[in-house]
């Protein structure tokens, strides 16, 4: 305080002029030349108790006289969720680029669009580790590796800061599944606590917290969002040990909670270290908590100081927002979206030089599957940025435009993809026997039984609920023989049985989450015979629903396949687009592609060897047809520039730059949490045991010797590369990368460290990477600086370098006891081209 008085006096004598305006002697916090922490302290020192309380209640009007702007926030991790913004490729695509420069540009562009829309607080990026490939929110996260996620997010934060926007690291922490995340509806009303993640301290530190702390360390992130789930008991937003540790790790900004359900006890959360009470307004926090002394004055000061720090540090104070503009998407942002998409597309297979298409051999192309506006899948939920149709380039438009008039392009629908189907219409079958219970568990005597022609409810029948369950049994009779697919669209928990076979349990909080896609629960295709009745049973519980109970059973004949096969037979190349819907509020229950898509790919590949499968999925899928097709390209959810980016890669204008940020399992049974281990996923009684410890993602596959379909870090270029001459000297490793082909292209040099046995670490862990673009025949020397913190255990280490977690031709053993010190930041690769 004394220091401040002196400083104020000094400022008064000297008088400061900033941007032509004098800063009053008694308002030193307005001086942008000072460090943000000092400005926060200076302002805190002149605030009254009441002003502090008001700020702690989220009432920014109380501090407006000091020049402090109100915080205005918007989602989401892949672009600003508003009209007139750019629908960027998913964050997972960004992680696939393994490119720090693109990550910074992506954060900068999203920050600029946030500002343009009058938001100074961005509710992104997300960095929840992909612990299970079934997790719904993978598209908006950054894969399974904490180092890759942390490096990517640190750059995004730096980019957003350059646009004077507060970025939010979310969701803290161990928020790795949707199932049960906000708890379940309870009999007497209200909700149970969120899913309880039981995680060891070591796994928390090394895997789940690591990306957050890296972004804090490298980019001084200004905000962290605590999550919906519980962690080893308490809700994360009410866990004082967790939040104190976060704040002690050098985090200077504020902690804000996830929406509504993250805070069960506002006083406990305030005491534990929650700073902003809610994403807007006071949440359940009251002035009384402060005036009564329940919350100590030091905690109140901490809340205020952290909130102010973020506002000063991000530049939000010095750069007031203007009015929101209608259109904030720019040509540069759209070009960036295209670049992130091409550089994040992962070429998984390319036999017989099927790609690129620009070889003069291609005179005709059949595009099969959703290739129009039905192809532009976005992640559902708060991260969904609906593309502006007038600016969206569909795959069909992109490919047709690039192919030119010399190539004949035909489109055949083939499959609807992962979309809700038409509701079953009553035919000659007698309808469904419906039983309803006034509990969530089909328990006891039903409260209502009746016959219904369809299973098509947008609300509970009168007198049933609010928490309810139901069973329908009946038959449907197909009029034609062939493949059929069923879809359930429900908010809640549902299981479908076809002819006594359990074909799909499903979990959805809502049928449509905000403006994302509808979330159907698709079964695999089922072969049915004309006139033969098929028994149907559906069990449903409204326990999991969020915005209102609903359930709709639908079916359709997989009738598009024959026409698609015909188109493929007459084309030089068949491109089959396949997709799935996943996002917030829903996990998948299988890695299989939904509905008739596998059958479609099989049928097309049977008549056209040059079949190229384009996967537009939010996570790994199984590929039973892999050996029958020539090429597979994973595009993730690419946003509005899909068609431009896809055509660029297919025709070889751009190299497919992506490498997998997540392991693709060879079956649903692989990985640490197969269906036989429900305590690991989805949990039992909403308690989830992370007892695989550190063995997350590729770490599990390496430790157990499982062979995935495609490993972490994998992806092909159109060029070929060789790694040679790895040397470790002190803490610096150098390796030569040579493009041995006749094409320009890029690879990602990946460095994995193997620790001495006594460290108890997984077999190999990513500790450095660098994207290297090289012309034909060119080479470069990449040097990685290892992090001294990783070399603390005495003994011998081995560094492996190559192009994926399973292709590591270069290795070097070393003892760090004789360490020298490199100069560049640990983990980043320094590239000397032409060396
Ligand atoms: C999501 C957050 C999001 C928030 C506000 C929540 O349901 O989990 O990621 O920021 O909603 O939209």
Number of helices: 18
Mean pLDDT: 93
Structural class: alpha/beta
Summarize the main sheet: 10 strands, antiparallel
Gyration radius from CA atoms, angstroms: 28 Å
- Amino-to-carboxy terminus distance: 57 Å
Tell me the total number of β-strands: 34
Ligands, deduplicated: beta-D-glucopyranose
What fraction of residues sit in β-strands?
A: 15-25%
* Envelope shape: globular
Q: What proportion of the residues is helical, as a percent range?
A: 10-25%
Low-confidence stretches: 1-15
Jot down its keywords.
835 residues, alpha/beta, ten-stranded antiparallel β-sheet, six-stranded mixed β-sheet, 18 helices, 34 strands, disordered N terminus, binds beta-D-glucopyranose
Task: Characterise this structure.
- By secondary structure, the protein is α/β, with parallel strands linked by helices.
- The chain has 18 helices and 34 strands.
- The longest helix is centred in the middle third of the chain and has 18 residues, at 297-314.
- The chain is globular and about 85 Å long.
- It starts with a helix and ends with a strand.
- Bound molecules: beta-D-glucopyranose.
- Residues 75, 123, 170, 258-259, 279, 382 line the site of beta-D-glucopyranose.
Give a brief description.
This protein is α/β, with parallel strands linked by helices and 835 residues long.
Architecture blueprint of SSEs:
Elements: H1 2-14, E1 16-18, E2 21-23, H2 36-46, H3 49-56, E3 73-74, H4 91-97, H5 100-116, E4 121-122, H6 146-162, E5 166-172, E6 196-198, H7 201-208, H8 210-219, E7 223-226, E8 230-231, H9 240-248, E9 254-257, H10 266-272, H11 288-291, H12 297-314, H13 331-344, E10 346-350, E11 364-368, H14 395-403, E12 408-412, E13 432-437, E14 448-452, E15 456-457, E16 469-476, E17 482-498, E18 501-508, E19 520-522, E20 526-528, E21 534-541, E22 550-557, H15 561-569, E23 573-579, H16 597-607, E24 611-616, E25 631-634, H17 642-650, E26 687-689, H18 698-704, E27 721-729, E28 732-739, E29 745-754, E30 765-774, E31 779-785, E32 797-802, E33 810-814, E34 829-833
Parallel strand pairs: 3-4, 4-5, 5-7, 6-8, 6-26, 7-9, 11-12, 11-23, 23-24, 24-25
Antiparallel strand pairs: 1-2, 10-25, 13-14, 13-16, 15-22, 16-21, 17-18, 17-19, 17-20, 17-21, 17-22, 27-28, 28-31, 29-30, 29-32, 31-34, 32-33
Helix pairs in contact: 2-12, 3-12, 4-13, 5-6, 5-13, 6-8, 13-17, 14-17, 15-16
The structure holds beta-D-glucopyranose (BGC).
